Amino acid sequence: FLLTLLLQLLPPGLLPGCAIFQDLIRYGKTKCGEPSRPAACRAFDVPKRYFSHFYIISVLWNGFLLWCLTQSLFLGAPFPSWLHGLLRILGAAQFQGVVIHCNHRIPFGDWFEYVSSPNYLAELMIYVSMAVTFGFHNLTWWLVVTNVFFNQALSAFLSHQFYKSKFVSYPKHRKAFLPFLF
């Protein structure tokens, strides 16, 4: 993601013109305005409204894991054997989204006064807070934080470019991802 972000920061004439590369790193509104994409690429597009099932499954799954952990820690109950095996292997319903309108607007207020994508910044802050909770010496988790940082920075940068290109009145002081910096 770091390399991809650095490539996106290059002047447009120096940026690789590979359509598949651009198709792989862009999604949602950042794909709008791109040249006509091949049908093979469009076949793999997933509407953003379908992503809600990831959050629902995550809440249910993590709630179940928390319940198992609580039972184990406080009541001495063993983990289910299938779960223990699954964790060892891993190494340590769709809902319809309702589209109100199809127009993009400039968001204002709260964190939007500082960055174009406060949701990406909040995600980074969640991972950093977890890393601090796990301890500053946990190198593996800090590598996860580094991955999340560059992944979210790339997404925020692409969204920021989209907003700046779509709205001539887009706030000049607003940064893409990190307030006052980037």
Structure description:
Belongs to the steroid 5-alpha reductase family. Polyprenal reductase subfamily. It is an enzyme of class 1 (oxidoreductase). One of its GO terms (cellular component) is endoplasmic reticulum membrane. This is Polyprenal reductase. This protein has 182 residues and is mainly alpha-helical. It has a domain at 110-175. 54% of the residues lie in helices and 0% in strands. The chain contains 7 helices and no strands. It has helices at 2-9, 19-25, 39-42, 52-75, 81-90, 118-134, 139-166. Helix 1 runs parallel beside helix 7 and helix 6 packs antiparallel against helix 7. The longest helix has 28 residues, at 139-166. It is globular and about 60 Å long. The mean pLDDT is 82.
Please summarize what this structure is.
The chain is mainly alpha-helical and 182 residues long.
What would the keywords be for this entry?
182 residues, mainly alpha, transmembrane, endoplasmic reticulum, EC 1.3.1.22
Topology summary:
Elements: H1 2-9, H2 19-25, H3 39-42, H4 52-75, H5 81-90, H6 118-134, H7 139-166
Helix pairs in contact: 1-7, 6-7
EC number: 1.3.1.22, 1.3.1.94
Membrane topology: Multi-pass membrane protein
GO molecular function, one term: polyprenal reductase activity
User: How much of the sequence is in beta strands?
Assistant: under 5%
Give me the count of strands.
Answer: 0
Q: What's the overall average pLDDT, rounded?
A: 82
Largest sheet: none
Rough shape? globular
Please tally the helical runs, counting DSSP H or I stretches of 4 or more residues. 7
